[in-house]
Automatic annotation (TrEMBL):
The lineage of its organism: Bacteria, Thermotogati, Thermotogota, Thermotogae, Thermotogales. GO terms for biological process: isopentenyl diphosphate biosynthetic process, methylerythritol 4-phosphate pathway; terpenoid biosynthetic process; thiamine biosynthetic process. Belongs to the transketolase family. DXPS subfamily. It is an enzyme of class 2 (transferase). This is 1-deoxy-D-xylulose-5-phosphate synthase. The gene is dxs. It comes from Fervidobacterium pennivorans.
Amino acid sequence: LEALNQVKAQDSKIKIILNSNGMSISKNVGGLSQLLETLRTSKIYITIKEKLKKGLNEAVEFELKKIREALKVALIGEDFFESIGLKHFGPVDGHDLRSLEEAFKQVKDYPYPTVLTVFTIKGKGYHFSEQNPTKFHGVDKFDPDSGIFEKPDGTYSYSELFGTTLTKIASQDDRVVALTAAMPDGTGLSKFAKQFPERFVDLGITEQSVVTYAGGLATMGFKPVVAIYSTFLQRAYDQIIHDIALQNLDVLFAIDRAGLVGTDGPTHHGVFDIAYLKLIPNMKILTPLDGQDLANMLWTVLKERGKYRGPIAIRYPRDVEFGNLEEICGKIEIVEPFKWQLLVEGKEIALLAVGVLAKKYLDIAKANAWTLIGVRSVKPLDEEMLEKIFETHKYVFTIEEGAELGGFGESVATKYLKDYADKYECRLQVVGIRDEFIPHGTRYELIKYVGLDSTNIEQIIKKYVMKGVRL
C-alpha cells in the first residue's frame, strides 16, 4: 500500500498485473480481498463488458473505455485503484491467452500508472489442485492419478500436533486466542478455527499487524498464541521488539518451519530465528526435542502463564514423527521447559544438540560413550547443567539447525569465555549452518548437505579430537 500510494506522485508509467484468484495460500481475508471478490463475482458487469466488445473493432472499443469504466463504478462501486490515481483495467480472464494479449497491448503504451486485473483459478488444469488449492500450494511427493500425498503410516506432522494440542488447551481455557497470517491450514489451526471461530484471528498476509494485535490481546488478559512460519516472522521484527518485548507482554510465538524446510525451498528455510530473536531483551526461546515435548511445553506455558511471563517463542520443524496424536495429548503434563535433558551420559566429549536434532545422535553418542544433551531452551541457557558440562568434559560441541552466526553455539561460547574459562579447561566448537543460503531439497538431503547428519557429526568430532582438525 505504501508503494501504491507513491506511484502517481512519482509520475510513474508502471504497469501492474494483479492476478486475483481469491487465494493467497489459504482463502483471502480482509477488505481489499472483498473488493476484488466483488469485482470477480459481478457477472452483470462482465457480461455487459463482453457484449460491448463483440462487434467493435479495437479502436472503437478503446475509445469507449470511459463508458465501460463508468459502468463498472455504477454496478460495483468506487474503484480503489482509481481513487489513488492509478488507471484500472479489467477484469480479464487469465486463462484466455487471446484476451490477455489484447489487454496487454491496450495498457502497454498507456501514459499513466496502470493496474490490469486478471482473474485466474488457483490450481487450474489439475482436478485435485482445483478442488483443494491450499493443499497443493507447496507439495511433497504425491500420486498424480489419485492426488494422494505420500506419508508414512502412523505419523503426524508437528503442525498437526501443535493445532491439536492448542485446541485441547483452548477447550479448557477461554482466554487462549490463536492468531495467524493467512496460514490456518499450514500452521495446523484449521481445527481450532472451526471449533473456536470467535477466538481465531486471521489477518491475511500481514505479519506485522498480527503481532501487534496479539500484544493488544495480551494487555487485556488473554493468552495470545501467534502461529507463523519462521521465515515470515522476520517481516514483523520491529513489532516483536517495540510492541511485544519492550512491554514484556505475554505473547506466545509458535514458530513453525524452524530449521531446514525441505521442499518449500530456499526462501522458506527457518535458519535465522534463533539469531534474530535471542538478542531481544525479555525474549525466551524454547526448542522441544520431539512431539511430546512440544505438546508439554505448550501445555505448561499456557497453563502457568503467571509463572512464565513475557514473550516466549517455541520453534519446531516442518517434519513428521511416528506416533498417535490422541495418545500424545493424553500424556500431556507440566514440565520444566527451560531445563535441558541428559539423553546419554558419557565422558570427555559432550554434544549439546538443539531441539529435534538431539535424538538423531543417540546412536553415535552411545557407541562412543559421549555425553548427549538435548537442548530444550536456547534462551535462557540452562546454566546449572552447562557448568557441569564444562567442569566434567574436555570437549564440548554445540550443534544446531540454524545459523552459526548469532546462534546458540555463540551464546555458549560467550558464556564460557565470560564465566568459566578461568575455572575449567575445555575446548569448545560450534556446529551449525554456515554463512550461506541453503538450496532446495528434501529435509533429509539438506540435513546431509549442511553436515548435520549423524555420520558426518561423528566424523568431524573424531577428526577434531584425534587430529586437532578444526571444523
